[in-house]
Specification:
The chain is an alpha/beta fold. The chain is about 30% helix and about 25% strand. Strand 7 (about 130-135), helix 6 (about 140-155) and strand 8 form a beta-alpha-beta unit. Helix 3 packs across helix 4 (about 90-100) and helix 6 (about 140-155) packs parallel to helix 7 (about 165-180). The structure holds S-adenosyl-L-homocysteine (SAH). The site of S-adenosyl-L-homocysteine has 24 residues, from helix 5 and strand 11.
Length: about 250
């Protein structure tokens, strides 16, 4: 029997935000390899399958086990939350195949990444060019991360911050952004998007620290660009229609 590796994104949490292909991939799989928490998120799909869980820092172990199972002829789903590209399992799995000269049958199944899930809850903050930055300094030196923060701030990109749990680094990042943006620039904080304990906060660059306490491992932050504003309790980043057209309902010009 010929094995296959699905590298699957589960989306942010709740079943309605899954993709059909993700559900199909998991149903077709004999083996599921996942970080313990993510295995719970797909618990309804894995009955009767071999489920191999591992802790957070064991990403290479998970990639290795998944590949070994495929070599045994199994169909395997290697699970990431959100999308498997975005700080997920796709890259380590492909690197592992590349460095071992393995030509396995594989398919990457995209999912709704946290930036998009958080943005949907906040309004339309990502309507223009944006930069996504992970504040995890486990594999990337802090100075390199902060350099990217500075360049993104300078470039007036909307900035999505993944992994903001490292509070000292988060505070340094926000201080850098504040050098380039007005204190009233909207900041969205979304904890556990599409999960039971979801929390959505819209604050701004001068006031965000008041909410630092809610920031945990499952929180994403979005800092607006120079044109982002808040209206009706939502963040809006204009696409530029206001520069050329009229938003009045009864005026066609
Ligand atoms: N591959 C994932 C990201 C993994 S990195 C994706 O595409 O979404 C882990 C980070 O993702 C967390 O620290 C947090 O910043 C973000 N995250 C994951 N799930 C989330 C959720 N449901 N709500 C808010 N942020 C989330």
């Amino acid at each position: 029997m010929k094995g296959k590796l699905f590298i699957v994104g589960t989306g942010p949490g709740a079943p309605p935000i899954r993709t059909f292909r993700m559900v199909e991939a998991i149903k077709q799989s004999d083996v599921i390899v996942a970080y313990t928490t993510y295995a719970k998120l797909i618990g309804d799909l894995v009955d009767g399958k071999e489920v191999i869980t591992a802790r957070m820092k064991e990403e290479l172990y998970r990639a290795k086990v998944a590949i070994q199972k495929v070599q045994e002829g199994k169909v395997v789903s290697l699970i990431s939350s959100g999308d498997p590209q975005v700080y997920g399992m796709a890259s380590p799995a492909l690197e592992m195949m590349c460095k071992n000269n393995l030509d396995l049958d594989f398919e990457i199944v995209p999912g709704v990444t946290a930036a998009l899930a958080a943005a949907a809850k906040l309004g339309s903050p990502l309507a223009m060019d944006f930069a996504s930055i992970s504040l995890s300094d486990l594999l990337v030196p802090a100075e390199e991360i902060l350099h990217r923060v500075k360049k993104a701030a300078e470039g007036d990109f909307v900035i999505v911050l993944y992994n903001p749990i490292n509070k000292p680094l988060l505070e340094r990042a926000m201080a850098i952004i504040s050098e380039y943006r007005k204190p009233e620039t909207p900041v969205g904080i979304v904890k556990s998007a599409y999960r039971e304990d979801e929390q959505v906060i819209i604050t701004n660059l001068s006031d965000w620290k008041r909410h630092e306490g809610i920031i945990n491992m499952i929180t994403t932050m979005i800092v607006g660009n120079s044109r982002t504003y808040t209206c009706n309790g939502k963040m809006i980043t204009p696409r530029g229609y206001d520069r050329r057209y009229n938003f009045e309902l009864n005026n066609d010009s």
